[in-house]
Amino acid sequence: MTPFASGAELKDALRRHDYIADDEFATVVHLATALERPLLLEGPAGVGKTELAKALAAVGDRKLVRLQCYEGLDDSRALYEWDYAKQLLHVQMLRDRIGELLAGHAELADASKFLAQQDFGLYSEAFLSVRPLLEAVLSEEPVVLLVDEVDRTEESMEALLLEVLAERQVTIPEVGTFTARSIPWVILTSNDTRELSPALKRRCLHYHVGYPTPEREREIVTARVPDVRPGTAHQIVDLSRTLRDLPLRKSPSISEVIDAARAATVMGHDADDPDSLGGMRDVLLATLLKYTGDVDLAKTRLGGAAPATATSEPDMSEASAPEPVPSHERVTVASRPANTTTSVFRGRGGGGRDAAGSGLRG
Fold first, then answer.
1. pLDDT 10s digits, 43-71
2. C-alpha angle 45-250-208 in degrees, rounded to nearest 5
């Protein structure tokens, strides 16, 4: 049962924990808790998907259980595994007693058959190493289960989630089926790096989390950085939105905008001077952007000095220069080459081949 009567009530509770959600998003989250359905949040990184689970655990007075997904994740890291060291110690403690029991069996086959019939308690709950999914099921207190960045795993891993999401239970062949002692609130997040399976999506409510409006982003920044001046927050948000219109490898997320606001506050930004941000703009780009190519592009487009080039490198002719990408066309990581050392030194010798949000707090 949800402790909130409506989405508006949940929105106010989240706000008290500095999580700023709009009406529509708060209503969807409320429905997920009221209908006891998992909520799948998709959208770019850094727009507050993970933070929602943390805030929801706080406002619901629940324990947060987090499964951080990654490539190669398997059931031994997501569900459970047997504590072999503990099992071995248990067998060693029973060694003398086992020897006494086997003394009456002269034949090896008889002794082996006798051992096979014994239950030494090795495969019981006492010898389980509990992982996040099983921990959420076994927890005596209500939990918020966060399955973070589920799109980073293989599709086979999604099959392991289905039993937990649909039946709220985990089956261990040697022991049996464990059913959730309380119904968990489940939040799954995806950064849209791959399409999730229809079977997984069918079991979830879905919401796409994008970048917030300027007004709500300023509200998020002032909530997370209480000592930032309103004028500073306004200028930082405007700068970040300008950068998001550029064809960058990675646009500034809300969490990075918050970092920029903190940095501007530390550097003593004069919010009353509309030009003061320009003097520290290049430094703030270090908090907003994560790739050298993005920084160079931003400096050029924002009217800064073009990045310096080595004097030994010939200038590119106008005919050979690549055409700029229109600012209205978004460029994804998949459509741009990786910013690697290989690409930096391409064409400078050697025979190598060419290298191939919503109103949330950050």
1. 999 999 999 999 999 999 999 999 999 99
2. 35
State both tokens at 246: 């550029």
Q: Which helix (H) or strand (E) holds 260?
A: helix 254-266
- Residue 176, judged by CB atoms within 10 A of its CB (0-12, 13-18, 19+), counts as exposed
Cα separation, 335 vs 346, in Å, equals 18
Bridge partner residues of 63 (DSSP): 143
Tokens describing residue 58: 């706080």
The HSE-up count of residue 130 (CA atoms within 13 Å, CB side) is: 15
Which residues lie closer than 8 Å to 351 by C-beta, 6 or more apart?
none
Q: What are phi and psi of 221, to 5 degrees?
A: -65, -45
Q: What does the alpha-carbon distance between residue 82 and residue 76 come to, in Å, rounded to a whole number?
A: 9
What is each CA distance from 171 to 138, 176, 219, 302, 349, in whole angstroms? 12, 6, 45, 57, 58
Q: Which residue numbers in the chain have pLDDT < 70?
A: 1, 96, 100-101, 106, 111, 114-121, 271, 274-276, 304-362
Return the ∠ at Cα 85 (arms to 80 and 90), rounded to 5°. 105
Count of Cβ atoms closer than 10 Å to residue 273 Cβ: 12
